Amino acid sequence: MAIIDDIEKIVNSYGAFLYDIETVNENDETIYRIYITKEGGVDLDLCVDISRDISPLLDIEPPVSGEYRFEVSSPGIERKLTKPKHFKHSLGEKIKVKILGEGKIKGTLKNADDEGITVETKEGEKNYKYSQLGTVKTYFEW
After folding, report:
1. What's the rounded mean pLDDT across residues 47-59?
2. Disulfide engineering: 42 pairs with which of 6, 74, 89, 115, CB 3.0-4.6 Å?
3. Residue-level pLDDT at 43
């Protein structure tokens, strides 16, 4: 999709990473939401700047039919990892993993490629293919 490529170029021009895009309905309102991440964190000014640069693209090529609200946001410090690129950009972070048919583990994401991940747990390093993973989320210890 050409618009996604253009959005990604704009996000990257700010030194940020396009984490995900979703369209959701909340309170009878359609929201087209772009999630971004950046080394050192995402602040409100960055979201505003990126939003301002992307808005004209969406005026020309609307991402959804009908009225919608457009938002640029951080996915948060505790977020779901669903795509290989999410895992690759979360190396070194603490994660909670539901392993299909095995239960849950916690550890540090040590490696991620197009096939699977390596998690450092108290018991040592464990390798999993993406097909073995259920829900995976980053978490923060307060």
Report:
1. 97
2. 74
3. 95
Total domains present in the chain: 2
* CA neighbor of 124 nearest in space, from 138, 102, 108: 108
Q: Whole-angstrom Cα distance, residue 63 to residue 1? A: 11
Q: What is the DSSP string of 63-104?
A: SSSS--EEEEE---SS-B--SHHHHHTTTTSEEEEEETTTEE
The whole-model pTM stands at 0.79
Range of the domain at 41: 2-73
Assess whether 65 and 94 both reside in one domain: no
Close Cβ partners of 61 (under 8 Å, ≥ 6 residues apart): 2, 3
